[in-house]
Design a protein that fits this description.
Layout (H helix, E strand, L loop, with lengths): L8 H13 L5 H21 L3 E11 H14 L4 E9 L2 E11 H12 L4 E11 L2 E2 L1
Antiparallel strand pairs: 1-3, 1-4, 2-3, 4-5
Length: about 130
């Protein structure tokens, strides 16, 4: 199947440099691998039910979104047990330590991804039923 997508020249150049350095034989193969990794990483929380402990990390442009992020974190204080914050110029890195119902943590993850000034949100660790997934 053929498809097309819009990405910046800078991102494409970085992507090409990485897959070429790793010795992958084509951009198509590198994209397939990247998509498979994306699906795996993002489906872990999506397929989990019940009580979880999770670590979410995201980076964002501070001035563009700080008030809305604070409001969101207050809206989810029932599952956010602690946070960690670091500054890098106009960008910030935030880590949320969560414990609660998987559906509620998943809802928080998706809400964070809705902000335009949030560059990426990742599940760094997820523990459900006493096992590391």
């Amino acid at each position: 199947m053929r498809t097309s997508l819009n990405v910046s020249e800078e991102l494409l150049a970085e992507f090409d440099a990485v897959w070429e350095a790793e010795g992958i034989d084509s951009r198509s193969r590198a994209l397939r691998e990247a998509m498979a990794e994306y699906v795996e990483r993002h489906s872990r929380l999506g397929e989990t039910e019940g009580e979880v402990t999770a670590v979410l990390a995201f980076d964002y442009e501070h001035h563009a979104v700080i008030e809305a992020l604070h409001t969101t974190q207050h809206d989810y204080q029932d599952v956010i047990t602690a946070t960690s914050h670091a500054h890098q110029g106009e960008w910030c890195l935030e880590t949320l330590f969560c414990r609660g119902d998987a559906a509620r943590v998943r809802e928080l993850l998706y809400r964070l991804r809705d902000f335009d000034a949030v560059r990426r949100v990742e599940v760094l660790s997820l523990v459900a039923d006493g096992t590391d997934e």
